[in-house]
Amino acid sequence: MDSSSSSSLIFCQLDKEFSKEISSLLKPPSSKQVQEYFDELVKTRQCNGLKIKNNGNYGKGVYAESDFNEGELVLKDQMLVGAQHSSNKVDCLVCSYCFRFIGSIELQIGRKLYLQDLGVSARMECATESSDEEDNSLTADHDDFGQCSSSNSKKKVPLPRETIESVMNGDVELPYSKQFPLPSAVSCPGGCEEAYYCSKICAEADWEFFHSLLCTGKCLGTPSREALLKFIQHADGTNDIFYLAAKAISSTILRYRKSKAAQVQDKGKHNEVSGNDNSDFSLLLEAWKPISMGYKRRWWDCVALPDDVDYRDEASFREQIRELAFESLQLLKEAIFDKECAPLFSLEIYGHIIGMFELNNLDLVVASPVEDYFLYIDDLQNEKKERAERITRPFLDALGDEYSICCQGSAFFPLQSCMNHSCHPNAKAFKREEDRDGQATIIAVRSIGKEEEITISYIDEDLPFKERQALLADYGFKCSCCKCLEEKS
């Protein structure tokens, strides 16, 4: 028996061993549980004017508790889980928790040119990502997030390495860069060189919620560190969505550990509750609650069939997707497996987590201050512009058209994910000038009355009727909004 067959049998045994617990984790929460959870979430986040309700037809929906005018902010939603695309990390240095740009204009420019000079650059078009999960996400109009273009039409003019390093290291100050101050970069508490933050608060929050289990710093034991690096390498080479799933599992484990530690402290170190399996699983169910509220299907069942795959090969394609998820999970299991949270490492759970992101994730986009900086220079008048461009023009020419690349990633937002689709929506994801982090920002596109459902479009609503319906079939429903009913007849 080869090693792959052996590992498959061991893994299937794990799924079978915890089948009861897995069923409990995947059991949809009751209407009362859903209502209580979202009522508390709306209250905690001070999302005034909103109410999450079960509407009977499409599950959860978001409704207006007060009137909203056209252009008014409806919701700013903090992500439950989010990650920057690995290919985008070459272009943008952002906080690993809130995704705000950090460092300085000089650091952003110098770092990008330095990595380009080393040949590290992994180009991507800002509005697309080759991974399967991007094809099916709830996409936002990137023009609405600010200019986010990446074209290769302009030939780059390289700069000397010494000049690039001087800017990156802060030895050179570019003109008017102080007009665009950025938070200083704070290093990861675990000492890895992958995560940086805009503040100590974000660093501590990320460590507490996710990163302490996913940090590749030297403080981590060597076997676990090597396994985690293999997992990350696999995710980078196949699909970023695996890293989102890893963060979801890590956050659940860390919530469980925190609750159990508090329980032990409350009842005494020698209390038998510390060895009570039923009590421990109740804590795991509670820790899992934020994930349980998201709509889920298995990834290999719900991922859209690519255009280049014949429908007759669909079964084979979906099995390949399942095997890809299995490979990823095995690597994650080797890195962060927790025996008390073993059900989380079943393929069934992993598949449903990824499926939740496949069906509900929103593009994470933060406009680049580097673009704003060069536009500011371009808007200067006469001699000021001429003097500034003598210094800035060589850097702009070295960056080429890629100077404007924004932070790009994927995230799951608990409140926004409750918004249902309409091809004639009354709201949309739209970043305003002041929205400089990764939170989801939903703006009214027309007046919304009290008690009216707030809807967004999961797709390009300007497409013809049949194309819209085909795209929405990947989400498992047919749209019957007023626009579709009119165009169908």
Automatic annotation (TrEMBL):
Location of region: Disordered: 131-156
SUPFAM superfamilies found in the cross-reference section: SET domain
Keyword Metal-binding applies: yes
CDD domains: SET_SMYD
Segments passing through the bilayer: none
PROSITE patterns per the UniProt record, alphabetical: SET (PS50280)
Keywords recorded for this protein, A-Z: Metal-binding, Zinc, Zinc-finger
InterPro entries registered for this protein in UniProt: ATXR2-like (IPR044237), SET_dom (IPR001214), SET_dom_sf (IPR046341), Znf_MYND (IPR002893)
Molecular-function GO terms, alphabetical: methyltransferase activity; zinc ion binding
UniProt KW Zinc-finger keyword: yes
Domain SET stretches: 40-459
Entries under Pfam families matching the protein: SET (PF00856), zf-MYND (PF01753)
Name assigned to this protein: SET domain-containing protein
Taxonomic source organism: Aquilegia coerulea (Rocky mountain columbine)
